[in-house]
Amino acid sequence: MRGWTVRDALDLYNVSAWGAGFLTINDEGNVEVRPRGNGTTGVDLLALVHDLAQRGLRTPLLIRFSDILAARIEGLRNSFETAIREYGYRGAFRGVYPIKVNQQRHVVEEIVDYGAAARIGLEAGSKPELLVALAILDTPGALIVCNGYKDRAYIETALLAQRLGRYPIIVVDRFREVDLIVKVAKDLDIRPHIGMRAKLTTKGAGKWVESTGDRSKFGLTTMEIVDAVERLRAEDMLDCLELLHFHIGSQITAIRAHKDALREATRVFVGLHELGARPKFIDVGGGLGVDYDGSQTNFHSSMNYSVQEYANDVVASIQEACDEKGVAHPDIVTEAGRAMVAHHSMLVFDVLGVHETLPGAPPPPVGDDDHRIIRDLQDVWKSITQKTVLEAYHDALQLKEEATSSFSLGYLDLRERARAERLFWHCCEKILRITRELPNVPEELEPLEKSLADTYYANFSVFQSAPDHWAVKQLFPVMPIHRLKEKPTRRGVFADLTCDSDGKIDKFIDPHDIKDVLELHSPNGHPYYIGVFLIGAYQEILGDLHNLFGDTDAVHVRLDDDGRYTVEHVVEGENVKEVLRYVEYDPAALVEKVRRIIETAVRDGNISLNDSARLRLHYEQGLNEYTYLARDA
């Protein structure tokens, strides 16, 4: 038979489909990151992890590739400029990045830097995000789109920013904000840049579909839009209405939803012109998806369209509506934050240990003196073939239940029950090995793969580093970053360091379905590293301190022109002391309290002076250590 190859690993983990040209597997069997896309210089991810470890960084480790960020921004820009050129569209592309998607300072600064040539702006959904945007965004002509709930201070800040050369557009999300904007603008004697968010009846597609449509949280109905236009006209501010905004949700999986929304929104846009307004921007919001599983389908972790198709539809829809009514083509604003940043971040964690469910070695021999149930289970195990797998499974289940009942009634002792259970799992293992070779697996046997999966104990927290996997069942590509020249012979799931039963990754991407287990390698006495990919959007900022596991170490890696990489930024993960302060503990007070407890124990003779000193040392050192575990030497 043909041996296992890197090509097999690429197919098994579907890397080429979801990696978008940024990830592959090299000849050494390691994941290779190509920060500038297909055919360019690559970085061996395992070698990088080892290099960063020598610099004192620890796993779990978040690695951000700055060049991937730049490539995604450039790709979005190129797609729209291609569509604009091919359709003869007379407006320009004016993307903005929603800060909420990943608010980390280095990420936002790099987006502003890489997007300067395309005048990429920022979207602020809150007062703190507006303050960030005012300080960081200094690109001439770039937009600051101000969304979210607003008070007077928010609006004043946005208006005064115009005197700093910024271009803030205050988007009316609720009708009452019109009066507030008018009043504050008059008080400051500043002509505002105003936008209106339309509450479309069109719904999105995907996991967040129910947050859109008539019952969406933000936006003005058509009646409110007309009333707002008349209110601005009465105040001689209709010329200040510069932008129409709409948003039908995050991670839109179907291009049809985009098309339907564009059809409705463009009618609103030209309708504003018919009312006498002259908006010059149309903001199509976010929702541009990311193909997390590589299936290119209308599945909640995928998308059935390309970025180019999306750009073509946006440009064509706006152009068609405007040309029909003789309206000038507006500049097109997008808020495609997920599509910009998802690919550039990956988490690498190490496996601390493995609980192997499958017995492995053949069952021990059974004698005539053994209990009938044990002898019968041995016979079932011997009789399992492709033709008898289902019958054998039924027999094994019946005998296992019989063993449990017999134990409860006192007819089997503890050792005999353990032997019966061991034989049952041997039967399941043999059945599973055979069913993996069958073209059609009987429905009753499908759960065997999951129930016999190994548990790989992982040095990370799902709640901190991949909260969407836990909260909304978002799938992320997960795979070993090395040993990929070896055929993975085991099936497993990951249990994180938290004591919560939900702290696990037990759903995995698959081109055709969702997998309950992941193909993994057996322990070999050396560190085993796993990568979680495409986690650049939302995961860092949504992460929480469950069990007080804090932020991980993080690095920004940039590729030099000579193909070598440079570590641009290092952000050390939180230590125990920092995390405790978040939840209102005073580390110094804790140290003093423990010192007093130890002194009492010494006085009462419950602990020696040497042990008391050792305990105090461990306690004080522990406060300054990483919240995650260190591998034993």
SSE topology:
Blueprint: H1 6-13, H2 15-18, E1 23-25, E2 31-33, E3 43-44, H3 45-54, E4 61-65, H4 66-87, E5 96-98, H5 105-114, E6 121-124, H6 127-136, E7 143-146, H7 152-160, E8 167-172, H8 176-188, E9 194-197, H9 222-234, E10 241-245, H10 255-274, E11 281-283, H11 307-325, E12 331-333, H12 337-341, E13 345-355, H13 372-383, H14 389-409, H15 414-435, H16 448-451, E14 454-458, H17 462-465, H18 467-471, E15 478-480, E16 490-495, E17 504-505, E18 518-520, E19 529-533, H19 539-542, E20 553-559, E21 565-571, H20 576-582, H21 587-603, H22 609-623
Parallel strand pairs: 4-20, 5-6, 6-7, 7-8, 8-9, 9-10, 10-11, 11-12, 14-16
Antiparallel strand pairs: 1-2, 2-3, 4-13, 13-14, 13-19, 15-19, 16-17, 16-18, 20-21
Helix pairs in contact: 4-5, 4-11, 6-7, 7-8, 10-11, 13-14, 13-15, 14-15, 21-22
How many β-strand runs? Answer: 21
* Low-pLDDT ranges: none
The helix fraction, in percent, is 40-55%
Structural class: alpha/beta
Given this structure, which CATH class of one domain is correct? Alpha Beta
Main β sheet profile:
10 strands, mixed
Corresponding CATH superfamily of one domain: Alanine racemase
State mean pLDDT (0 to 100 scale).
92
Shape: globular
Radius of gyration (CA) equals: 30 Å
Number of helices: 22
The CATH architecture designation of one domain is Alpha-Beta Barrel
Q: Termini separation (Å)?
A: 39 Å
The amount of beta strand, in percent, is 5-15%
